[in-house]
Amino acid sequence: MFLLGSANRDERVFQNPDFFDISRELTPENRIMTFGDGIHACLGAPLARLAGRVLVETLLEGPEIRVVGLPERWAKQMVRGFANLPVKFVD
Question: CB–CB of 26/15 below 8 Å?
């Protein structure tokens, strides 16, 4: 089974794989597998990458964000994340 979370954190491919680095350059040697590859690549991948980049850059430039409640984890075999992450924007 191909687990995306593991593939994108492979220490043989990425230097410091557990660190989120928004400026990490992706090359053919260290590409991420989130959107697939070859004929199985997601058609919406370029738009999703752009939207994600704009979102993160906007959040980094914007107000401070604090978690104000208890996060609820959501985990399936291929997808992990938060079902609920209560936050507050602080000026």
Answer: no
Helices and strands in the chain: count of H runs, count of E runs: 2, 4
Average pLDDT over every residue of 6-28: 79
**Could you give the CA distance from residue 5 to residue 18 in angstroms, rounded to a whole number?**
11
Q: For residues 36 and 42, what is the distance between their CA atoms, to the nearest angstrom?
A: 6
pTM: 0.48
For 67, the 3-state DSSP assignment is strand
Reduced to 3 states, what is the DSSP secondary structure of residue 63?
Answer: coil
Give the range among 5-9, 44-48, 69-73 with minimum mean pLDDT.
5-9
Phi, psi of 45 (to 5 degrees): -55, -45
**Domain assignments of the chain as residue spans, ordered by start:** 4-90
